[in-house]
Amino acid sequence: MDNKRRTVITGIGHYVPPRVVTNFDLEKMINTSDDWIRERTGIVERHWAEPGVGTSDLATEAALRAIADAGIDRSEIDFIIAATLSPDHYFPGIGVMVQAKLGLGEIGALDVRDQCSGFIYALSAADQYIRTGTYKKILLVAAELQSSNLDFSDEGRDMAVLFGDGAGAVILEPNDSGDGRGVLSCHLFSDGRFVNELWMEKPSSKDNPTFRTEFFEQGKFYPRMNGRTVFKNACDRMPQAVLFGLKHLGLTVGDIDYLIPHQANDRISQMVARGLKIPEEKVIRNISKYGNTTAASIPIALSEAVKDGRIKPGMLIALTAFGAGFTWGSAFIRW
Ligand code: UT7
C-alpha cells in the first residue's frame, strides 16, 4: 500500500423528497405540539416521501447528484457502498437496487447496517478499499426512509416527530498527489449490550413464524427507543470518539474547522459542542429543516456545507455519529 495515498471526496450530493411536513402538520396527526418538538429537538420541519417511493429511489437521486458533482461518467464507478437502516425490502439491501437503477455494470455492492453511524462505518470501509488500490471510484450512498413506519400513537410519538427522509452520496477516489487532502482516519466503536435501547424488535428470525398478527397488534414492528438512555450515551460517546481520533492524529479540538455531528437532536449537537469545548459556529446543524435522517444526516449536512461554501479546501472536518446498536464513531477529513 502506498502510505501517501489518501481517499478523497471528489463529488457530493444530497436529495430529500419534495413533501415538507411541518410540526404544525404533525399536530394534526399526533398528540404533540410545535412547541414541544422545537424545544426538545430543534426540529421545525422534515421531508417525507410519498407512497411508492423507496429508500433506493432517494439513494439513486443523491447518487446522481454526487456523480454530476464529481464530473465523472457513471460507468467509471467500480464499487458501491450503501448505508441504511430502512431498506426497501427486508432483503436484499439497497446497494444492488442503486446499481440497477443507475444502470451500472456488474460491480460489487456492499450494504452497511450500522444505523445512524452508517455513513462513518461505510466511509471507513471505502477508505480501506481506496488506499489498498482495490477500487478507484467508489459510490458511497446513505439513504433513509422512515416515515412509512412510524407509530403515531402516544407510545411512538417521541420517534414519530424525530425522523425525516433523505439521502446523501459521495464519490471517493485515490489522491496520490501527497498534498495531504482526504480522509485522515476513521474510528469505529460499538456496544451491543444496548441493542434493545433503540431498535425495531420485529420482524425477528427468532420467531417461527416470523410475522404474526399479534406482533402487529402489539406495535412490535415500529422502531422503539429509550430516549433518555440514547440521549445520554449520544452526548458522551460522540465527544469521546472525536477526542480519540484527535489524539490518534496528534491534533487538538482547536485544529477542527467544522464539526458535523449526526443530526440526532439539536440539543445533543449542542451538548457535543459543549463537551468538546468547540464554539457553536464551528458545528454544522441542519436538523431544523430535515429532522433526524439517521445514516443520511451527515452526508446531507456535509453536502449542504460544501455547496454553500462554508467548507473550503484545506479545512479539517470532523464527523461523528452515534446510533442504534449502540454504534458510534468519528472520521477526520482534510478537505
Ligand atoms: O438518531 C439515533 C439516536 N437517537 C437519538 O439520539 C435520540 C435521543 N433522544 C432524544 O432525542 C429525546 O429523548 C427525545 C426527543 C426522543 C425525547 O425527549 P425527552 O426530553 O427525552 O422526552 P421524554 O421521552 O423524557 O418525554 C418527556 C415527556 C413525556 O411525558 P411525561 O411522562 O413527562 O408526562 C412524554 O410522554 O414528553 C412526552 N412526549 C411528548 N410530548 C409531546 C414524548 N414525545 C412527545 C411528543 N410530543 N412528540
Question: How would you summarize what this structure contains?
Answer:
The protein is α/β, with parallel strands linked by helices and 335 residues long.
Describe the structure.
It contains eleven helices and 13 strands. The two termini are 22 Å apart. The strands form four sheets. A five-stranded mixed sheet has the order 1-7-6-4-5, sandwiched between helices. The chain has a four-stranded mixed sheet with strand order 8-13-12-11, sandwiched between helices. The chain folds into two domains: 6-175, Thiolase/Chalcone synthase (Peroxisomal Thiolase, Chain A, domain 1, 3-Layer(aba) Sandwich); 182-334, Thiolase/Chalcone synthase (Peroxisomal Thiolase, Chain A, domain 1, 3-Layer(aba) Sandwich). The chain is globular and about 60 Å long. It has 335 residues and is an alpha/beta fold. The longest helix has 23 residues, at 227-249. Helix 3 packs across helix 4 and helix 8 packs parallel to helix 9 (266-276). Residues 32, 36, 40-41, 116, 157-158, 161-162, 227-228, 230-231, 234, 264-265, 268, 292, 294, 323 line the site of oxa(dethia)-CoA (UT7).
